[in-house]
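Memo to structure team: turn this sequence into structure tokens by end of day. - J.P.
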Amino acid sequence: GSILTFYGMWEASLFAKHWLPFCKRYNIEPRSPAAYFSESDGHQELCTPKEWSLIKDMFDKMTERIDTVVMSGKVPEEIKASHKGFYEWNQEITSKNHQPIVQILIDSKDQNAVDNEGKVLPTLVYMAREKRPQHHHNFKAGAMNALIRVSSVISNSPIIMNVDCDMYSNNNDAVRDALCFFLDEEMGHKIGFVQYPQNYYNLSKNNIYGNSLHVINEVEMGGMDSLGGPMYIGTGCFHRREILCGRKFTEDYQEDWNAGIKDKLQESIDETEEKAKSLAACTYEHGTQWGDEIGVKYGCVVEDVNTGLAIHCRGWDSVYNNPKRPAFMGVGPTTLAQTILQHKRWSEGIFSIFLSKYNVFLFAHGKTKLRHQMGYHIYGLWAPNSLATLYYVIIPSLALLKGTSLFPEITSPWIAPFVYVFCVKNMYSLYEALLSGDTLKGWWNGQRMWLVKRITSYLFGVLDNLRKLLGLSKINFVVTPKVSDEDESKRYEQEIMEFGSSDPEYVIIAAIALLNLVCLMGGLSKVMKGGWNVHLDALFPQLILCGMLVITSIPFYEAMFLRKDKGRIPFPVTLASIGFVMLALLAKIV
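Reply from structure team:
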């Protein structure tokens, strides 16, 4: 509901008259001008230097104007006079309290809506659904449903694509490729949606925060593709409009590719905008099945997973398309806090599905394959995995310090299953990571983040779900912030982990790291002194486990005791973690 967003779109609609012909003339990729010019050195040979400089200068001036307006926080009056849409805003409007706003910036039916070569421009529409404090807006799912309805009176196109606001098109063929699946003569009528992977363009070389999603994209999602199709991940997806509106699959299904288009040609812009506004009103859904049987599902912070599951249960298949050149690129988290927050929301939301009537084993029973249901539960059980992980990073280490063996002796044949799981799991994990494009160091960073996410994000995901079940909290959709200051960005490029605040998650990380360091030093000290009445081979597995945890935690020790920059772990966090370690040691003694 921001006038600044509307202003940015208005500027982009003017720039499009020059940018789109330029893109088509030279087959420009990526189509995002910001992304294109950021890697411009490899593209200048496509056109004459004069033409390249001209379009680059136009883009720079546009972004400079937008930045100036955003910095000032208001749109100049002379610009407001350029489009009637600016007068939708007044001093009383806030982001959480405003009327529905629908403005058609470019109308492809208008004879004057052409680029500088006289070719028709695509329709471009700004929509802000109505928001009132007394009406729940249902977060992203509510916005998606409003867009589905509003688009039905503007184009009513049979295919809907959605991407997150921080993503751009990176592959010109993505739309055509998706349509090829829907139009396939043998299998096309069975396909409800085509899902592309989520890729980030700002990852560090060695994936310091484990955000590449390479293994998920290359292995896991591809595996689900053979079982009925991948889950809907909320971005980079093409849906049939009819399946989002609740249609069940039937063998005789045929898409009507011309539905509604002729009717739209007869309406004026003003008529269309007014009709669309009524569909974006906050009371429109009252007494309807929107958010339940129709549209994107409500009641969960990962509405995309719920929605995709319901589509699969109505008999539709989905398709996973992972082209060599990524179809869409977005912004990944660049600090530890951003990563923890993102995974907390994901794990909390998917675990809430596991605990709800949409539990895949129950809701999809008899509707999808058992293996497909198990594929969903790989992610549904992220959160409770935190409990097992906490046990393994605390109890064996304390037992090591006390001299209590928890595993079979290293010379016993019963140690074989433990050694097998440890070796094969890590070797196969490394194989998958390298095969998917990670580096060796990137895989090691991923193992560290595997630990961090399970003792922070996933743990809080469990706790938040328990609070909701007890009625102590409500659903809250927290958008992951992805803006970092200059110092944070510099440390990210250098692959130095970012802490800098006193979040409780950091206390857990520091306490686990210190506890394992103390237990390893104490255990080795007793071994060297020969102070144990048990053989070393009985405690060797615990020494290995504790030692691996200490090696994994080296960046945490540096952040606590060696680093002096603002991104280090603050002293109060270190002090608190030392206190918790002392309590754990006292409990061990008792």
